[in-house]
Structures are given as structure tokens and as C-alpha cells.
TrEMBL record, chain A:
<protein>
    <submittedName>
        <fullName>AP-3 complex subunit sigma-1 isoform X1</fullName>
    </submittedName>
</protein>
<dbReference type="Pfam" id="PF01217">
    <property type="entry name" value="Clat_adaptor_s"/>
</dbReference>
<keyword id="KW-0653">Protein transport</keyword>
<comment type="function">
    <text>Part of the AP-3 complex, an adaptor-related complex which is not clathrin-associated. The complex is associated with the Golgi region as well as more peripheral structures. It facilitates the budding of vesicles from the Golgi membrane and may be directly involved in trafficking to lysosomes. In concert with the BLOC-1 complex, AP-3 is required to target cargos into vesicles assembled at cell bodies for delivery into neurites and nerve terminals.</text>
</comment>
<dbReference type="GO" id="GO:0030659">
    <property type="term" value="C:cytoplasmic vesicle membrane"/>
</dbReference>
<dbReference type="InterPro" id="IPR022775">
    <property type="entry name" value="AP_mu_sigma_su"/>
</dbReference>
<keyword id="KW-0333">Golgi apparatus</keyword>
<dbReference type="GO" id="GO:0005794">
    <property type="term" value="C:Golgi apparatus"/>
</dbReference>
<keyword id="KW-0968">Cytoplasmic vesicle</keyword>
Automatic annotation (TrEMBL), chain B:
<dbReference type="InterPro" id="IPR016024">
    <property type="entry name" value="ARM-type_fold"/>
</dbReference>
<keyword id="KW-0963">Cytoplasm</keyword>
<feature type="compositionally biased region" description="Acidic residues">
    <location>
        <begin position="877"/>
        <end position="887"/>
    </location>
</feature>
<keyword id="KW-0472">Membrane</keyword>
<dbReference type="InterPro" id="IPR017105">
    <property type="entry name" value="AP3_complex_dsu"/>
</dbReference>
<dbReference type="GO" id="GO:0043195">
    <property type="term" value="C:terminal bouton"/>
</dbReference>
<protein>
    <recommendedName>
        <fullName>AP-3 complex subunit delta-1</fullName>
    </recommendedName>
</protein>
<dbReference type="InterPro" id="IPR011989">
    <property type="entry name" value="ARM-like"/>
</dbReference>
<feature type="compositionally biased region" description="Basic and acidic residues">
    <location>
        <begin position="934"/>
        <end position="946"/>
    </location>
</feature>
Length: 193, 1232
């Protein structure tokens, strides 16, 4: 079982949090903070597993993470998951994000956390791996997006126009807050399959 | 209407969307909290609006804020509203929000049951998918119970996308509702062989999770999995299966033997490291389960170790880590094969990655032997020095201690060395583990008698140099070792060389800065030391010395007497008085040493931590029984004051102990002694225990080598453990030489020696300990129970899933199925007694008034008739006794309702005018596809639910009420976005007293083959549409097929037929009915005017197919559109409601009901339920209610009750609609 999936940046700002067991908001924040502290102090070239069992119940649990550009993707799993399998799953997740957002960067995740959730929902459900085939995931996501668009129809058009206008200012933002090189480079890892 | 939508979307443009919110937060770095709180205020405003798009947007933003740690549970109800939107876009937002913040404690969850059920059966696979995904995150036991059957049906959905989700979510359902496991299991098993790999993988996933917790129940699946393992190419599936086998093999060794071969093949063939790794892991598990050391498996072990070595040597840190992890598993059973890779593992200790170092440490723990312990620990000590100031160093420290102390110090040959190591470890600054070192020191000093002299000397040195330990950092944990040092020096003071010096060291003023519990030990042990010193000094000619010692204590102790710590203070003042007294005696030249040391005589033996628990309860002793009968309530009050004065009271309890005479006691004591002597586990007092140990065969042959202690002890300052390594080498060499001499002599005896260090290599037998190691074992009580079954968590949720899956399924175990409340049957003849339709509706009201009285009488008559009928029916149909009995209240209630419609508007039936309706309906009916997924829902026998309900009825009645309410909304939500659960929101209908069950389904028509019940609901999305849900129930033993539903359209109302169909063509019902099965289909009608009720005549034709024949049958029915069915439950806030009433556009009307004998909240619930109203506000016995028609008419009610009279004042912008609605309400209550 996957107990939680967290994405946060190099400063520990949460970009996505998905807990498959219930915790209060405070506990969740604390877990994110502690996970960040554990993960962030590790060097780049050390192993991607951490026995941080105390965070989310029981010593059975492990943290498995990957670090891409400015983001950490952390999965908290128990012993029924294969460590290397989960690493590959993270890779699939990031590659899927890359396809869906076309060169994904942290900003995409910041502004479209709902979409990231939707993509994740096609991969992991209730803490169990649902689908690992990227093409299948993207097919389903595309079909749902199409549905959403057709629903918006004419009524949605003005709203889309406005949001397009609003987003015109977007490129200035990264400069203001100095994100730097934000594009997540998806390295080609030896595939799992 | 359309204008409204456009206006809504324009409004929405200027609302803040998620992106704006995020942007805003980023632009308000300094006052983020303030900014967010204003945003939350905005969101609250948005949630109050009617527009679902605005609400969804608000909920979407809340989801983001939840991630930032803001509690958004206050919006739970709004989330439910958004979830129930008919648009996928909003639905998805709603479900996402719910999955993020709903949990078992969220009370609105129970409102979602029917919405979720509806989404699960939606024709759109993504609606279903989104509902399943959401449900997987917040499923509760109630939801699991109510939806288990629906989800199980979805497991056989045509779309693999739904199947895999349904399969996966079953695991969550099992966890919450374990009763569902057995009924669902066969289908789950079936899915293991699903053609779609995704579904298959999901099924494997679920079964693996289940089997991991209760493996023995899944052994029977092993052959199936075995087949999958050899055939599947999906690595995910393979990994899961292989992991599962790892869990199964310990239970069935034969399985393991079978597995070895395919697994080794996989290991050789696969290129995926993850698969290789899991294979190795499972092979290890198999090997562990098989009896170790079987010759034909040593090849497998070698293969595993080899592969692991490759992993460990890999440059990828992840593989290295996992390799070490797996290696540690092999280590447990096959230490020898791992030990040959010691070099590799020691290398890993130098790795820059802490996780890898820790893993390597774990491995070392199992790799030590008598031979290499000193060497390994020496290496670890080097690392300790390097790793200053990290938690890793603490980890190292505990590991060193673990390694040395494992198995009762099995691998330690030289305890002097170990004590030196411990003393060296005390030099670590800032460690948290002072306590651990201290307990080791105590343990070794107590249990290894031979080492006490050395230990005491070392401890004395520690005490002398205490300032080094406490140093500048007061708070560091290392000062704990002083606790041990002081205790050891005091307890074993006879070994001290210079007790006077140590005593002096223990009474230094600086000691007062130590933590209280250490000071207490200092004071106590100073007293012990004092006793020893006295003894020595009294023997000496200089008697003055003894008095000086006393003086020293008298001088120093007052410092402790002033201590803030109670323990220290108490002990110090006691001892101070004692010493003062002794001094007095000394001055009189009385010899006191003997008596003082008698204070501290005796020896302590270690007691096992579980000793207390293991004391068996003597026969006849009931620990739960009262010793004294507890005083009764009234008595205790009387006795309390008495007890204050009567202190001799306790005497009364004494006689309860059986009086035993001296002889009996002596006899018992003797018997016990005898028993103890025969009990090998009972440790006798020290002299005899030593004897026992020495009597053990072979032990006396261990040569006791006297080590020249002078060398280490004379080293000034702290001892160095390194020297021992060298010394040990020398000693062993010497020994070997000696042994050679004696070899011949010893040969025979050696053979007879029991295997002591059994897991070490053979050569270890030759290494003899430097001391005669008398490791005192921990004491256990006599008759200790050997069982060790005390560590199991009783709260494990998986315990409930420990269910035998191979037993055949019983009827009582079937999943609860949602059933429609059976309606009272009304014969078609009766149904058809409606009067001829009136052509001009305008006359209606006047005519109605005239008929009012008549109607009433008629109604009563009818209900009586009905009751009689029912009785008849019950006699005639014994097949459903449970159902009938249980549903009785429902039926009588429903009967009223069923009877109501025909009588309520007997005159307005619109005459069907078929010839004139030439215009064909434009749109395709959505009814046919919609009803399809519902089909299997009702196929399960209905008894299951009812019997279940019966049991839990009392408890669940409130819940039922909720469900009922939802049921009503269930239909609305389909059409309306905004229709929330206002009545609950406003909290007015909720009351203590349970509501009787209600149903809106009423009988349409019935004959011996089929029964039709229907419910009519307006469609908010389209002001001219009404949806009729018809449940067809096959009552016969035959198969019903080719059902065709046809209605004669009127000018006002038309059945929507698919494009191209003629105006008189029937609609094919999209299912067939096997015997006893019921199913629901929906038909859409378009209506023009809704201000008055109307009836449509229709026919159902169908083919009855029995074994030998098939006949064409038909059933006529009359579809009754009441005005109520055009109303849609719509929430309304009281302020908006007040405005509406003030506007003055509404026409008023009123109604008085007499003789209504029911609680007010029942009354309200009935109006809400049957007439689609919502409660706006309720004050005592007065309530305002609101509803809206599909064409936007507002209907407001003010309901007041006094006694049995209910008066309803109503306002509506369409008076005729209002009149009809009131009339219908009246009909509803005229039956109660």
C-alpha cells in the first residue's frame, strides 16, 4: 500500500499532498515538514530509500523519493510495495506529467494542482497502484479533458478568454520570484518493463 | 433560464479562480495568512450562491487551501453539493475535494450514499471512475455496506477502465465491511484471469494485500498464482505475485519446493532489476521456510548471495541498499554464506550514504563470531570517532552494544575488553545513549562475577574523573553512566582498592549538580562504601581513621540534605542521622562495622523483565472476584464518616485469610523447596547456583586463565580497549600451544561436550573465554509459563479479514441490496376507475370544491378496502413472508400514497388525442441507455436486506431516515445542480423520533406477469421535461422479453422517442427480465403546461416465454403526472425567502388539515419527501418551506400545527399550480 504521496519543492513548499489515510490538517503539515527535512538533507547521489517509519504509522513504512530539478516526489509506502517498482512509478508519473503539461515545470504544478491530482488518480487509487502504462493513463486523461471542454461549450468560452488574458501576465512571475531553472528534466532511466 | 446560465458564466469570469488564488498567495508573501483569510471569506460568499459553477470554483480553491494546511471541513456540505452536479467537470472537483478532506468522522458522508450509487451506475464511465476514485479515499463502514453490492456489480462492467477501479476499491470495502469479503471473493478470483491486464493486475494487487495479512486463507489460490507467475509478462503483476508467494511459503513448505525452480529461472533470465530483487527475496523466504542446510538448496543460496553481491557492488546506491537489505535476511538462516562477504560489508561502512551504512551495520550484527568480534568492534570504534556529532554516531553506539550483548554476551570472550569498550564509549560527547551504556555496565557487573573486581576498579576511575563526563554540557546524557559507576562501586565495594578515595570522590560538592536520581544513588552507595571502609578501618590499629571517615560524611552530607530532590533529601537525612549515631558509638569505642555492613548484606540477582507476568495464577484464586463485597451506593455514604474514627475496622477482613497452623506452613515450605530443587529453571541463591553451573558437563574443563591484571590497571587515565585485542591474540596463541600438549588427553572429553556456541563456526569451540564466565541468568518465578504469545495487536483492522474463503457461501451472507419498497398492489380495474376527463380545466376548481367531501369519504373507503386486500394478498402469497412482515408499516403508509393520486384529481384527466399529434419529438430519449447499468442492482434476492434490516432496524432507523431523504434527492440531483440537502442543512427535520420509511414509487399497473411501479421527477435542466422512472418486476416463473413501453401522447405531454420513430411507436425497454427479477427504466416526457395535473394512457406489451410456449401479453396503465412531480427540491436561505415573500408577486392560498395525528417533524418530512419541499426555517411548531417548479415557479408554504389541526398558508406565482399542490398535500395527509 502507498500511504501518502507528497510533492514539495526545494524549500519544502507543498505542491501536492495526497494522503491515503486520514490525518488532521496539522498532522499532515507536520508530516510534510518532517519528510522535507529528512529528504532535503540527503546528497544527490545517495540511495532513494529512507526508513522514516515514524512519520506515518509503523516501522513497516519507507519513504521512496526522487528529486527532479526543483521538486521532490516522495512516496510513503509499506513493505508490500516493491522499492524499485515504486521508483519506476515515480518516473512514470513524472513522464506523464511531462507529456500532459508539455515540458512540465514547477509552475505547472503550482497553478494546476487539480490537474496533477487527476493524473495521479489515474495511476494510484486509494493507495494501490492502478495503472502503470503511460499511454493508457494519457488516453484516459485526454478523454476526460475532452469531456470537460465539451461541457464548458459556449458558456465556458468567455471564462476561458478571461483566464487567457489573466495568464498573459504569467511569464513575469518566475522572474519576480526568481525560480531559476524550473523545467523538470526527465532523465531517461532504464525502463522497468 | 438560458439567460441565467449565461449571466452565471459572466459572473464567474470575474470570480477568482484557482490560478488567481495561487497567484495572489505568491504576491502576498509577507501577509500570506491575512490574504488567505480574506480569500476564505470570499469563498464563503461564493458558496452561498446558487450557481453551481461558482460553487465548484470555490470548492476547487478550498482543495488547494487544504493542502496548505487550512481546515476546510466546514464546507463539507458544499462539497457534497458540487459532487452531485450533473456536469463531470464539477463532479470531479467535488469528488477531489471530498477525497482530500472527508474521513470517517465527516457527518455529511451519509448524505452521499445515493449520489455515489447514482454515479456508480452512470452511463458515463468517467462519472463512475471519478466516484470510485473518490470513494476509495473516504469510504466508511456504512458506505461500504450500502455500496458493496453496487461495486461488486461494477467488477463485471463491460469497460476495463471501470472494472479495474471496482476491483481495486473492493479492498477498501473489505477493510470497512468485512462481511462483504466472502460473497465478493469468487468474483474477485475470477478477475485474476481477466482478459485486460490492468484488471488482472488490480485483482492481484487486492488479493496480495489481503493475503499479506492473513496468508493462510489464501493458500488455496496458490495453483492459480503459480499459473499466472509462469505465464504473465507484466512485471508489476509478477512482482506482486512473487511477493505474495514470499508470504505464503512459510505456511506451506511444499509450495516452496515447487517455487525454487521457476524463481531461479526468472533470476537467470530477467533483465529487470526490480523483478530480480523480488525473486531473490522470495527464494530467501522459501529457503528460510525449508529446513535449512538441505544440500540441494545450497546452490540456490549461493546464487542468491552471488546476485546480491552484484547488487551491492553496483554503482547505483539503490541497488546497493536493497542488496544489503536482502543479505540481512539470508543472514538469519545461513550466516556462513554471508560471512564470506564480510569484506564487502565492512566496505559499505565507509559509504557516504547513511542508509547504506545503517544497513551494513545491521548485517554486521549477525556476522560477528567469537573470533572476529573484537576486530569488528575495533573497526566500528574507529567510525565512532569519525562520526562526531551525528545521529549516525548514536546509531553506531547502540549497534556496538547490541552486537556485543546479543544472545547473553555469547560472542564475548573477554569481559575486561568489553568493560573497557564501554568506558571508552563514555567519552562520546553529546550522545543520547548514556543510559544504555549504564545499563550494560550494571548488567555485566552483576551477571559476570569474575569481572566485578575489574569493573569496580574502572568505575572508581570514572567516579574519580566524573568532571570529564559531566564537563561543560550539563544536559548531555552521558552522565547517566555515573549512576552505574556509583552503584557498582557501592554494591561491590569489597573489590575496591582504595574505598576511602572513592568515598571521597562520591561526596564531592560537584556531585550536587548531577541529576536527582543519580545523586540519590550516590548518597545511598556512599553509605555502602562507608560500611566497607569502617570494616577495614576498625580492623586496623588506628581507630582514629574510622572516626575521621564518619566526620567526612557528617561534613559532606548536609549538602544533599538540602537537595531539592525529595529522594536525595530523604536518603541523605536518613544516612546523616545514622552516621551521627555511629559516630556517637565510635566515640564510646563500640565496634559498629559489623552491624553497619549488615544493613547492606545480601546479593541481588537479575530478574527477567517478564517474570511478573509469568507467575501462574494459583488454583482457586480468582483475581477478578471482589475480596470484600463492594459497598452498595447507599451504604457507602453512611460508612464514610464512620471510617474516619474506626481505625480498627480492617481487622474484620483478616479472618478471610485461611488460618494456617505452623506445621502446615512448614510442610508447605518443604514441598516448595523440593519442587524448586527439581526445577531446572529455578535459579537458586548464589552459592548453589555457582555449583550448578560448575556441575554442568564439560564446563569444568574450561581452563581458568589468570590474566595479569596489573598491565591494564596501571595505565593511568582511561583504559584502552585496543590493548585487549593484542593481549587476546597472545592468549589464544598460548592456549593453542597448551592445548596441543593436552590434546590427546582431552580428545575424548571434547567429543562429549555439548554444543554451546552452536551458530558460530566450528573453530570457535577452540576459543575459550578468558574468564570463567558465570553469566547469571535472569530469574523467573517458579512455575513460569513458557508461552510467549503476548505480543499481538488486538486493534489490527486486518484481523477482521481473517475469514475462511473456501467455505461455501451461505444465503445469509449475501450482500445487502438496495430494494425498492414494495408498493401495495392495486388491481388495474381499480386503477382504471378514473372519471372521464374534463376538457376545460378552468372549471376544475369549482367542481373540485363540490367533490371535496365526496373524495374524502371515498378515500377512506378505499383505504379500508385496500387493507382488506392486503390481507388477502398476504394469505395468497406466502413466498415473501419476511418482506411482508417487515415492511408492514411501509405498506400501510405507501398504500395511502398510492391511493392518493387517482382520487386527488379525478376530473382533470387529459383526454388523449392521438390523431392530432403529428409533430414528432425532436430529441432522442436518454432513458434507454441510462437505465442499463442499473440492471444488475436488483437481481439479488430481496430477503437479505430485509432480514438484515430487521436485526439492526432499531439502530439504523435514524440512518434510514437519512437515506430516505437522500433517495429523494437522488432523483433530483440527476437533473439539478443546486438541489442540495437543505432540510438537513437547516437542521429542522432532524429529530429524535425516527421517521417511518417512505417511498415515492407508486403502483402504475400490475397483472399476473408483471408489476410496474413508477416515480416521476421534474428536470431542472430543461423546464419542459419530466423523467419517469419505472421499475418493472417480473412476478411470474417465465422469462419476459421484448418489452415495449408506449404512451398515447396528449397535446400537453409527449413521450420523447428516438429520432426517426413515429409518434405512436413504443419504446423498447432495454432489458429482459428473468423470473423474479426487477429492473428500472427511465422515460423522458416533454410537457408544456405544468400548472395542472394530468393523466396519460399507456400500454406495455411484452412476450412471456415459458419452457414450452411464448405468448404475447399486454398491460394497460395510466401515468399520472401530479403537480407535485413538477416541483423540485430546491434549497432556499431564509433571507432570500423573506425577500421573496415581501416582493408581493405571489398569490396566496391556504389549507386546513384536521385530525393529523403525527409528530410535527414527521409531517414536515412527509411534505419534504412526497412533495419535494425543503424546510427553510422551523420554529417550534411552525415551519416555512420552499420549492420550485421545473419552470421556475416559486412555491412557499407556512405550516403551523396546533393539536391535531394543521394549517398551511401558501404562496405561489401561479395560483392554479398552488391549488393543485395543496390539494395533493391534502390527499397525502387525509390518509394518516
Amino acid at each position: 500500500m502507498i500511504k501518502a504521496i507528497l510533492i514539495f519543492n526545494n524549500h519544502g513548499k507543498p505542491r501536492l499532498s495526497k494522503f491515503y489515510e486520514h490525518y488532521s490538517e496539522d498532522t499532515e503539515q507536520q508530516i510534510i515538514r518532517e519528510t522535507f527535512h529528512l529528504v532535503s538533507k540527503r546528497d544527490e547521489n545517495v540511495c532513494n530509500f529512507l526508513e522514516g517509519g515514524l512519520l506515518i504509522g509503523g516501522s513497516d513504512n519507507k519513504l521512496i523519493y526522487r528529486h527532479y530539478a526543483t521538486l521532490y516526489f516522495v512516496f510513503c509506502v509499506d513493505s508490500s510495495e516493491s522499492e524499485l517498482g515504486i521508483l519506476d512509478l515515480i518516473q512514470v508519473f513524472v513522464e506523464t506529467l511531462d507529456k500532459c503539461f508539455e515540458n512540465v515545470c514547477e509552475l505547472d504544478l503550482i497553478f494546476h494542482v487539480d490537474k496533477v491530482h487527476n493524473i495521479l488518480a489515474e495511476m494510484v487509487m486509494g493507495g494501490m497502484v492502478l495503472e502503470t502504462n503511460m499511454n493508457e493513463i494519457i488516453t484516459q486523461i485526454d478523454a476526460q479533458n475532452k469531456m470537460e471542454k465539451s461541457e464548458a461549450g459556449i458558456a465556458g468560452a468567455p471564462a476561458r478568454a478571461v483566464s487567457a488574458v489573466k495568464n498573459m501576465n504569467l511569464p513575469e512571475m518566475p522572474r519576480n520570484i526568481n525560480i531559476g531553472d524550473i523545467s523538470i528534466k526527465v532523465p531517461n532511466l532504464p525502463s522497468f518493463k | 433560464m438560458a439567460l441565467k446560465i449565461v449571466k452565471g458564466s459572466i459572473d464567474r469570469m470575474f470570480d477568482k479562480n484557482l490560478q488567481d488564488l495561487v497567484r495572489g498567495i505568491r504576491n502576498h508573501k509577507e501577509d500570506e495568512a491575512k490574504y488567505i483569510s480574506t480569500c476564505i471569506d470570499e469563498i464563503k460568499q461564493e458558496l452561498k450562491q446558487d450557481n453551481i459553477a461558482v460553487k465548484a470554483n470555490a470548492v476547487c480553491k478550498l482543495t488547494y487551501l487544504q493542502m496548505l494546511g487550512y481546515d476546510v471541513s466546514w464546507a463539507a456540505f458544499n462539497i457534497v453539493e458540487v459532487m452531485s452536479s450533473s456536469k463531470f467537470t464539477y463532479k470531479r472537483i467535488g469528488y477531489l475535494a471530498a477525497s482530500q478532506c472527508f474521513h470517517e468522522g465527516t457527518d455529511v458522508i451519509m448524505l452521499t450514499t445515493n449520489q455515489i450509487r447514482k454515479d456508480l451506475s452512470s452511463p458515463n464511465q468517467y462519472d463512475t471512475g471519478v466516484a470510485l476514485t473518490g470513494l476509495s479515499c473516504f469510504v466508511t463502514p456504512d458506505l461500504a455496506r450500502d455500496l458493496a453490492n453496487d461495486i461488486m456489480t461494477l467488477m463485471s462492467h463491460t469497460k476495463p477502465y471501470i472494472r479495474k477501479k471496482a476491483v481495486l476499491i473492493m479492498y477498501k470495502v473489505f477493510l470497512k465491511y468485512p462481511e462483504s469479503l466472502r460473497p465478493a471473493f469468487p468474483r474477485l478470483k475470477e478477475k485474476l484471469e481477466d482478459p485486460d491486464p490492468g484488471v488482472q493486475s488490480a485483482a492481484v494487487n487486492v488479493i496480495c494485500e489481503l493475503a499479506r495479512r492473513n496468508p493462510k486463507n489464501y493458500l488455496s489460490l496458490a495453483p492459480l498464482f503459480f499459473k499466472l507467475m509462469t505465464s504473465s509478462t507484466n512485471n508489476w503483476v509478477l512482482i506482486k505475485i512473487i511477493k505474495l508467494f514470499g508470504a505464503l511459503t512459510p505456511l506451506e513448505p511444499r509450495l516452496g519446493k515447487k517455487l525454487i525452480e521457476p524463481l531461479t529461472n526468472l533470476i537467470h533470465s530477467t533483465s529487470a532489476m526490480s523483478l530480480l530483487y523480488e525473486c531473490v527475496n522470495t527464494v530467501i523466504a522459501v529457503l528460510i521456510s525449508l529446513s535449512s542446510g538441505m544440500p540441494n538448496h545450497s546452490a540456490s543460496i549461493q546464487l542468491c548471495v552471488q546476485k546480491l553481491r552484484i547488487l551491492i557492488e553496483d554503482s547505483d546506491q539503490n541497488l546497493k541498499y536493497l542488496g544489503l537489505l536482502a543479505m540481512s535476511k539470508i543472514l538469519k538462516t545461513h550466516p556462513k554464506s554471508v560471512q564470506s562477504h564480510k569484506d564487502l560489508i565492512l566496505q559499505c561502512l565507509d559509504d557516504k550514504d547513511e542508509s547504506i551504512r545503517l544497513r551494513a551495520l545491521d548485517l554486521l550484527y549477525g556476522m560477528v563470531s567469537k573470533k572476529n568480534l573484537m576486530e569488528i568492534v575495533k573497526k566500528l570504534m574507529l567510525h565512532v570517532d569519525k562520526a562526531e556529532g551525528t545521529t549516525y554516531r548514536d546509531e553506531l553506539l547502540t549497534k556496538i552494544i547490541d552486537i556485543c550483548s546479543q544472545n547473553n554476551y555469547q560472542y564475548i570472550t573477554n569481559f575486561e575488553w568489553y568493560i573497557s569498550i564501554l568506558v571508552e564509549l563514555t567519552r562520546l560527547e553529546g550522545t543520547r545513549h548514556g543510559h544504555l551504556i549504564a545499563s550494560q555496565m550494571l548488567d555485566v557487573a552483576i551477571r559476570v562475577k569474575a569481572i566485578r573486581g575489574f569493573a569496580v576498579a574502572q568505575m572508581a576511575m570514572l567516579l574519580d574523573n566524573a568532571h570529564l563526563l559531566t564537563g561543560n554540557t550539563q544536559r548531555n546524557g552521558i552522565c547517566e553512566v555515573l549512576y552505574a559507576a556509583a552503584w557498582i562501586c557501592g554494591e561491590f565495594s569489597e573489590h575496591l582498592e582504595d574505598p576511602m578515595h572513592t568515598l571521597e570522590a562520591m561526596l564531592r560538592p560537584k556531585v550536587a549538580t548531577l541529576p536527582g536520581h543519580i545523586q540519590a544513588v550516590y548518597v545511598q552507595n556512599a553509605a555502602k562504601l562507608f560500611a566497607t571502609v569502617l570494616r577495614k578501618q576498625e580492623g586496623a590499629p588506628d581507630s582514629q581513621a574510622a572516626q575521621e571517615t564518619s566526620q567526612l560524611l557528617i561534613d559532606r552530607l548536609p549538602l544533599f540534605v538540602q537537595s531539592a530532590n525529595l529522594e536525595v533529601q530523604e536518603r541523605a537525612s536518613c544516612i546523616l542521622q545514622l552516621v551521627k549515631y555511629i559516630q556517637k558509638l565510635q566515640q564510646k569505642d563500640v565496634e559498629v562495622a559489623e552491624e553497619v555492613s549488615a544493613l547492606f548484606a545480601g546479593e541481588l540477582n537479575p530478574v527477567a523483565p517478564k517474570a511478573q507476568k509469568k507467575v501462574p495464577v494459583p488454583e482457586g484464586l480468582d483475581l477478578d472476584a471482589w475480596i470484600n463485597d463492594p459497598p452498595s451506593e447507599s451504604e457507602s455514604e453512611d460508612e464514610k464518616p464512620k471510617a474516619v474514627f474506626a481505625k480498627e475496622e480492617p481487622k474484620h477482613t483478616r479472618p478471610r485469610h485461611p488460618e494456617v497452623d505452623e506445621k502446615e506452613l512448614a510442610r508447605r515450605r518443604e514441598a516448595r523447596k523440593q519442587e524448586q530443587a527439581n526445577n531446572p529453571f529455578y535459579i537458586k541463591s548464589s552459592p548453589s547456583s555457582q555449583k550448578v553451573y560448575q556441575d554442568a558437563p564439560g564446563v569444568e574443563h574450561i581452563p581458568v586463565v589468570q590474566i595479569d591484571l596489573s598491565v591494564p590497571l596501571k595505565v593511568p587515565g582511561m583504559p584502552m580497549s585496543d590493548q585487549y585485542v593484542k593481549l587476546e591474540e597472545e592468549r589464544r596463541q598460548k592456549e593453542r600451544a597448551e592445548k596441543k600438549k593436552k590434546e590427546k588427553k582431552k580428545k575424548r572429553e571434547k567429543r562429549g561436550r555439548g554444543k554451546k556456541g552452536d551458530s558460530g563456526p566450528e573453530s570457535e569451540e577452540d576459543i575459550t573465554p578468558a574468564h570463567q564466565v558465570d553469566i547469571v541468568t535472569e530469574e523467573m518465578p517458579e512455575n513460569a509459563l513458557p508461552s510467549d504469545d503476548d505480543d499481538k495487536d488486538p486493534n489490527d483492522p486486518h484481523k477482521a479479514l481473517d475469514i475462511d474463503l473456501d467455505k461455501p457461501l451461505m444465503d445469509s451472507e449475501k450482500l445487502p441490496v438496495r430494494t425498492h419498497r414494495p408498493e401495495v398492489l392495486k388491481s388495474p380495474a381499480e386503477d382504471g376507475d378514473g372519471e372521464p376527463a374534463q376538457a376545460e380545466p378552468k372549471k376544475r376548481s369549482s367542481k373540485e370544491k363540490k367533490e371535496k367531501k365526496k373524495d374524502k369519504d371515498k378515500d377512506r373507503k378505499k383505504s379500508k378496502e385496500e387493507k382488506k386486500k392486503k390481507k388477502h394478498k398476504r394469505d395468497a402469497e406466502p413466498e415473501e413472508p419476511v418482506e411482508e412482515q417487515m415492511e408492514e408499516p411501509v405498506q400501510s403508509e405507501a398504500s395511502a400514497e398510492v391511493a392518493a393520486p387517482p382520487t386527488s384529481t379525478p376530473t382533470e384527466e387529459v383526454e388523449p388525442t392521438p390523431p392530432e399529434t403529428t409533430s414528432t419529438p425532436e430529441t432522442t430519449s436518454a432513458a434507454a441507455p441510462e437505465s442499463e447499468p442499473e440492471e444488475p442492482k436488483d437481481t439479488e434476492p430481496e430477503e437479505t436486506k430485509s432480514s438484515k434490516h430487521k436485526k439492526k432496524k432499531q439502530k439504523k432507523e435514524k440512518e434510514d431516515k437519512e437515506k430516505k431523504k437522500k433517495k429523494r434527492h437522488h432523483h433530483h440531483h440527476h437533473h439539478s445542480d443546486g438541489a442540495g440537502d437543505e432540510s438537513v442543512q437547516n437542521g429542522t427535520v432532524e429529530e429524535e423520533e425516527p421517521l417511518p420509511p417512505m417511498s415515492n414509487y407508486c403502483l402504475l399497473a400490475e397483472n399476473s406477469y408483471i408489476k410496474m411501479v413508477c416515480d416521476i421527477q421534474g428536470n431542472l435542466q430543461d423546464g419542459s421535461q419530466v423523467v419517469v422512472s419505472v421499475i418493472f418486476e417480473n412476478k411470474s416463473d417465465c422469462f419476459l422479453k421484448s418489452m415495449e413501453f408506449n404512451v398515447l401522447d396528449s397535446l400537453n405531454s409527449k413521450l420523447q422517442r428516438p429520432e426517426g420513430a413515429g409518434p405512436h411507436d413504443g419504446l423498447t425497454v432495454p432489458f429482459q427480465l428473468p423470473p423474479g427479477v426487477s429492473n428500472e427504466a427511465r422515460f423522458v416526457f416533454s410537457v408544456q403546461s405544468i400548472v395542472m395535473p394530468q393523466k396519460l394512457k399507456g400500454t406495455l406489451t411484452f412476450i412471456v416465454k415459458s419452457e414450452d410456449s411464448s405468448t404475447h401479453e399486454k398491460l394497460d396503465f395510466k401515468l399520472h403526472f401530479t403537480c407535485t412531480s413538477y416541483l423540485i427540491t430546491t434549497p432556499c436561505y431564509s433571507d432570500a425567502y423573506a425577500k421573496l415573500l415581501e416582493s408581493g408577486d405571489l398569490k396566496a392560498s391556504s389549507l386546513k388539515l384536521e385530525g393529523v395525528n403525527m409528530p410535527f417533524h414527521h409531517l414536515l418530512a412527509r411534505i419534504c419527501f412526497h412533495h419535494h419541499f425543503s424546510v427553510v426555517e422551523r420554529i417550534d411548531s411552525c415551519a416555512s418551506m420552499y420549492s420550485r417548479s421545473i419552470q421556475g415557479h416559486h412555491v412557499c408554504l407556512l405550516v403551523k400545527t396546533s393539536g391535531e389541526t394543521v394549517s398551511i398558508d401558501a404562496k405561489c406565482d401561479e395560483p392554479s399550480l398552488l391549488g393543485n399542490v395543496l390539494e395533493e398535500i391534502k390527499q397525502t395527509f387525509s390518509r394518516c
